[in-house]
Q: What sequence folds into this?
């Protein structure tokens, strides 16, 4: 009989794998400037590399996002881990933009298959009656992984030899550990019919989730668009507008946003989710505006402070959005629901960042960053209005229910 991890150990293993995949996704961020210097490509190419990753990720989410609900979590994880290993090997041998694009595309496919499956597995392995904990773990692990990948790579680039290869060797060791962990995981999603039909790309929601999801969407757009700016152009903005060229500091730019977000999600874990979502909407707008003003004034300390405020909103957004979906989605629909949530998130993560990369070559990085941040702040304000409207609607429904009408 095969040895299997118990529920608690499986929960830890799945969470660690989610951190690993997100760390691998965030690792190239401080290296973009290095690649740009070595190979001499423009900012638009930099964001193309970023976009190819998201294209692979989104396509995979749309096609296989619900597959693990039918064939089981472990087979999909095995395939995702194998593809991640291929991507890391491509990074190791990359000598130009073409191989870098291929590596990011394969990594996007691997990450798309992994994150929906791992997010659903986190919910499966959460103790009954504690679905909100799954949303907390998913949001914290995602942000912690992005932060760790970014700052870890920045440190290796600044202080260690072979800056464009060592980080991928370290990640390959983590991938090997993930293979062992997956072999020991209990299967939490028994096979059921409909696997082939689930591969047909679909974007939709069960009717009972539609109203709640629509009010969450502006928060997802604002938070992930902000994350896309920091993880694609953050180090370039730090170097170009604030004069910061240290690679470790470049990694810390993304770490400030994502690390603050992870800490926030943990601190707010016991707050009611509607309150968390409102806080997210307000602080995303306030923090983004504050950061823009600081960058325009050339003040790195004030820009860091604004980033921390925005990071609180970023973390609250992930906790509130994913926690709400985890709490409300039915077990047989979790993979599909998380797939749609990630599709919306990563569209916001990628499309504005690519547009910003193109615009930066035309009008300059400074004006592009200002417009981009203004859109994020406006989305935050729209999210505030949406949450207020949702609160009034729920209060009206409660009054009707009490009156028996």
A:
């Amino acid at each position: 009989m095969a040895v299997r991890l118990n529920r608690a150990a499986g929960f830890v293993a799945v969470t660690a794998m989610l951190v690993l995949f997100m760390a691998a996704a965030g690792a190239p961020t401080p290296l973009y400037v290095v690649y740009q210097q070595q190979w001499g490509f423009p900012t638009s190419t930099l964001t193309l590399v970023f976009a190819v990753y998201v294209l692979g990720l989104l396509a995979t989410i749309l096609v296989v996002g619900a597959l693990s609900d039918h064939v089981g979590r472990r087979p999909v994880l095995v395939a995702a881990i194998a593809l991640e290993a291929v991507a890391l090997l491509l990074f190791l041998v990359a000598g130009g933009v073409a191989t870098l694009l291929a590596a990011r595309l394969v990594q996007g496919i691997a990450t798309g298959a992994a994150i929906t499956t791992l997010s659903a597995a986190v919910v499966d392995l959460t103790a009954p009656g504690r679905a909100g904990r799954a949303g907390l773990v998913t949001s914290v692990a995602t942000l912690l992984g992005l932060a760790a990948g970014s700052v870890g790579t920045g440190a290796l680039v600044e202080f260690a030899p072979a800056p464009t290869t060592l980080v991928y060797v370290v990640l390959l060791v983590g991938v090997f550990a993930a293979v062992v962990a997956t072999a020991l995981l209990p299967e939490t999603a028994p096979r059921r019919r409909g696997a082939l039909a689930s591969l047909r790309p679909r974007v939709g929601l069960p009717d009972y989730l539609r109203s709640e999801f629509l009010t969450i969407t502006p928060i997802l757009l604002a938070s992930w668009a902000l994350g896309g700016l920091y993880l694609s152009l953050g180090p370039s903005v730090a170097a170009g507008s604030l004069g910061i060229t240290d690679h470790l500091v470049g990694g810390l730019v993304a770490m400030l946003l994502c690390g603050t977000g992870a800490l926030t999600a943990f601190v707010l874990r016991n707050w009611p989710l509607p309150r968390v979502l409102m806080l997210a909407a307000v602080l995303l707008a306030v923090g983004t505006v504050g950061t823009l003003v600081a960058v325009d004034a050339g003040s790195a300390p004030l820009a860091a402070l604004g980033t921390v405020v925005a990071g609180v909103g970023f973390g609250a957004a992930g906790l509130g959005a994913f926690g709400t979906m985890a709490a409300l989605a039915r077990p047989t629909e979790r993979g599909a629901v998380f797939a749609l949530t990630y599709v919306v998130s990563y569209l916001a993560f990628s499309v504005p960042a690519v547009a910003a990369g193109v615009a930066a070559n035309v009008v300059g990085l400074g004006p592009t960053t200002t417009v981009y941040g203004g859109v994020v702040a406006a989305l935050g304000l729209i999210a505030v209005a949406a949450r207020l409207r949702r609160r009034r609607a729920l209060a009206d429904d409660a009054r009707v229910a009490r009156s028996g009408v």
About this structure: The chain has one domain: 7-188+204-403. The domain at 7-188+204-403 is CATH 1.20.1250.20 (Growth Hormone; Chain: A;). The chain has a mean pLDDT of 83.
